[in-house]
From TrEMBL:
One of its GO terms (cellular component) is plasma membrane. Keywords: Cell membrane, Membrane, Transmembrane, Transmembrane helix. It is found in: Cell membrane. It comes from Anaeromyxobacter diazotrophicus. This is DoxX family protein. It comes from the Bacteria. The chain crosses the membrane at residues 12-33, 53-73, 80-98, 110-131. Pfam families: DoxX. InterPro entries: DoxX (IPR032808), DoxX-like_oxidoreductase (IPR051907). It is a multi-pass membrane protein. Belongs to the DoxX family.
């Protein structure tokens, strides 16, 4: 007879919480891309509109929207997460760090957080609720 304590039961949920983290973070991440590319849910350009696709923000928006969609469903999670982690590091050091040291003041805290969430997923994978897990079966 095995006895399970609350800590053991909670630990058993870790793979599912990994999937949940990926899904929620990807949903939020996609919004940064769609705002740049399609002005949805709102325009990020002063005065409205979208960014040119062939610009640095346009490329970033495409990576965020389409890479985020792949992460949302958990397809090719490790390489996509690694790529997006690098994009977020690049975004922080190019777009935010020059505005000052403190991330909360230079508005870089989402980039830092996404960088490390995607870096973690590049190592940990997508979790059981993913197309990657379905493909492995």
């Amino acid at each position: 007879m095995t006895t399970s304590n609350p800590a053991t039961r909670w630990s058993a949920l870790a793979p599912y919480l990994l999937s949940l983290l990926r899904i929620v973070a990807a949903f939020l991440f996609i919004q940064f891309g769609t705002a740049k590319l399609f002005a949805l849910p709102a325009a990020v350009i002063p005065g409205g509109g979208t960014v040119p696709l062939a610009s640095l923000p346009g490329i970033a928006g495409a990576l965020e929207a389409f890479g985020g969609a792949l992460l949302l469903v958990g397809l090719f999670t490790r390489p996509v997460a690694f790529l997006l982690s690098g994009e977020m590091a690049f975004a922080y050091f190019i777009g935010h760090a020059p505005k000052g040291f403190w991330p909360v003041l230079n508005q870089g805290h989402p980039a830092i957080l996404f960088c490390f969430v995607w870096l973690y997923h590049s190592a940990a994978g997508a979790g059981p609720w993913s197309l990657d897990a379905l493909r492995r079966r």
